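Operator note (shift B, R.M.): manual run for DedA family protein requested after the automated queue skipped it. Running by hand, logging everything below so the morning shift can see what happened. Input copied straight from the record, untouched. If output looks odd, do not overwrite the archive copy; leave it for review.
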Amino acid sequence: MTPPLYEAVNVLDAQSLLAAFGVLGVGVVMFAETGLLIGFFLPGDSLLFTAGLLCTGAADRAVKLSLAPLLVAAAVGALAGAQCGYLIGRKAGGALLARSRSQRLHDGVKRAEELLERYGYAKAVVLARFVPVVRTVLNPMAGALDVPLRTFTLWQVVGGLVWSVGLTLAGYALGSSIPNVDRYLLPLVALIIVVSLVPLLSEVLRARRSAEAKGGDE
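Run finished. Output pasted below as returned.
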């Protein structure tokens, strides 16, 4: 007998979410993680990668997804979520962030502030997509800090498409080229998360080198 849905679904596990909700679940999670502060704990990176892998159509997989609808759902959810988060931040200011008691969320706020101050609006909005928690809090913060709407919209679309479509296609490519890739899913997801942080780490290193060069010239 199949257990009730609320007992069967683990919202922290990508495969569980996909088995229960399929493509629709991907869109909803993307929206919640990037647009609603309560979604900061959701597994965005691993969900996109795993969903792409499950589009490869191997016969032994219980869950099978279609690539085209998945890409649309992931992109729409990610873009609409970020825009919603921005509008919430613009209306509510920092009140919602201040009310939260989550230390992880407040740590994300600090990192988001550092990104905005160090790299400027455009680069910060793009880089934030690749950092868990930061991609949740930066959007309402951008609204609260009155980042120009056109600037935010342009760069959140660029970052959102690269992140959502890129990770999904990465999962699809690996699932299509490596036999029984499911066996290596957990280490692959960990690797994808690490790789997604490379743009941010490279910018941090570049900023440090620039600061050291300026210090040496003085």
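Quick read of the result: The chain has ten helices and no strands. Residues 1-7 have pLDDT under 50 and may be disordered.
Leaving this for review. - R.M.
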